[in-house]
Amino acid sequence: MRAQRWIMPALLVLVLVLAIASIAVGRIVLSWNVWLDQDAIGRTILLELRLPRALLGIVIGAALGLAGAALQGYLRNPLADPGTLGVSSMAAFGAVLSIFFGVADFHPWVLPLSGVAGAMLGMLALFLLAGLTASALTLVLSGVILSAIAVAGIALVLSLSPSPWAAGEIVRWLLGALADRGLDDLAIAAPLIAIGAALILSSRRALDALTLGEIGARSLGIDLGRAQWQLAGGVGLIVGASVAVSGIIGFVGLVVPHLLRPLVGARPAALLVPSAIGGAALVLAGDVVVRLLPGGSEVQLGVVMSLIGAPFFFALLYSMRRQVT
Amino acid sequence: MKIDSRLSVAGLTVERSRRSILDSISVQFVSGDVTAVLGPNGAGKSTLLSCMAGLLQPSLGIVDLDGTSLNVLAADERARRIAFLPQIPEISWPVDVATLVALGRIPFRRRASDAANEAAVLRALQATRTAQWSQRLVTTLSGGERARVLLARVLAGESDWILADEPFAGLDPAHQFEAAELLRSLASRGHGVVLTIHDLALAARIADRVIVLHRGRIVADGTPEAALTPSTLREVYGIEAQWLSVRERGVPLIAIHGRHVG
């Protein structure tokens, strides 16, 4: 099955529509002519709240979708995702540590780079545990172990935290959200994500070749050691920067490639860019939904994604279990 | 373009956990021949092929392609010249047949034009008579059909050398025959074909040359009839077998009488 031609334009239109919705929808619904109305408050909401939020949704969503598709291709496993494999939790652990030790205040780049360091460490641990020939079971268990380590570390930091207020802030941020982030956050995350994406895209040949397994890929002249570093670096940058800005928004990388595979074909490299666009659409949609939910305070986006993603993960593993055994 | 290539190994030794898998093997393969590597399980056949494909670094010795050691050949260039079909091929994703076969063009992705790559894929599909499935998902194919598609993947590289580790395993006699004919026709067009095989009769049928490995050493090397002598078969497999004096329609026949006692 070849990639359907309408998929990419359709995904792009979807992202555009959702971005407009994301800009318009909220406690105050902006009208089309906010610009012409000389409405200062509306304009401020647009420029300082909604626009950064929509842009961040696109960037973070694309990053997570791309990271998921790349990890699935590399590990040859549809269960792989930065969230399920514990890479996001490791990124959060890195970021939390930098807050705890007070180094995050030195420079705006310290927090995201600590997240990146955590995520890269998570990727290396993952490669060490699961490697290239891991079964689905080993992979999922590796994710469980990494998540356990990261969650334990975060819990330790929180319990040692001197002020309950700071601890509460950290917890809120960990839950994952795009609210109350500004263009400054975007300016830090975007370059890191762009470098990460470039690294991932440069491993396209390796990802495709891995369809034939490790031996098949090497016989096609692929340097798997290099691909591993590209992936560890690329996914580390993307996930670390995303988590540092928006907390843990899980399951995007799991759900999106899975939904797109029947439409664009299962070739790993062909799935990368559509998954990025699809990820942007999913995160934007989720972020619009959290604003439409009734209730006094907004539900965190990460919570909504987990509510959707976890049952999806359940169903996916269940269907695979039946296939394998 | 006539292929004239030599793939040789010299002093090839592979040790794993202090056990010698290959013990100082030296042999030269010539393009245009089908060479069958035989031997009992654990004789070192797959290890030899892996070394020749540049996938396994020997403990000692070198693999040499037309005067260049595989160690100094860029991986891309090696992959363009030597195609390898693993014993247990893996297909990780439910891609369609055309996409799978096109993976064989990966070493050429930046070298050749898209049109040239597509043409090579089409030739490989046609040669293996798998073109009619090109849009089908590999997951919907039977084991034999999948084996043919994987062979097409190897052919798509149009490399000088095709190394195949048990390419006929799991194929029914008709498809074994078809795949064997295909490899023969590649050799007649000048490609070098080296394969491992367990079926003595099939080896005798398709191979120009047979190499018998036993405990990591070469114990026989020659035409099928010269290499697979009763004494060699007794020594290597522990079986009593002999060539029948009649060559049925040009095909050599071998009769296995039973296990060697004593």
Question: Can you give a write-up of this model?
Answer:
By secondary structure, chain A is an all-alpha fold. Helix content of chain A is 74%, strand content 0%. Chain A has helices at residues 7-24, 40-75, 87-100, 110-130, 136-160, 164-174, 183-201, 204-209, 213-219, 224-246, 252-264, 268-292, 301-324. In chain A, helix 2 packs across helix 11 (252-264), helix 3 (87-100) crosses helix 10 and helix 4 crosses helix 10. Chain A is globular. The model of chain A has no long low-confidence stretch (mean pLDDT 87). Chain B is α/β, with parallel strands linked by helices. Helices cover 32% and strands 28% of the residues of chain B. Chain B has a six-stranded mixed β-sheet, sandwiched between helices. In chain B, strands 2-1-4-5 form a four-stranded antiparallel β-sheet, covered by helices on one side. A two-stranded antiparallel ribbon of chain B has the order 11-12. The mean pLDDT of chain B is 90. The chains are: A mainly alpha (325), B alpha/beta (262). Chain A binds chain B through residues 1-2, 76, 205, 208-216, 218-223, 261, 265-268, and chain B through 53-55, 74-80, 82-84, 86, 89-96, 98-100, 103-104, 106-107, 109, 135, 137, 153.
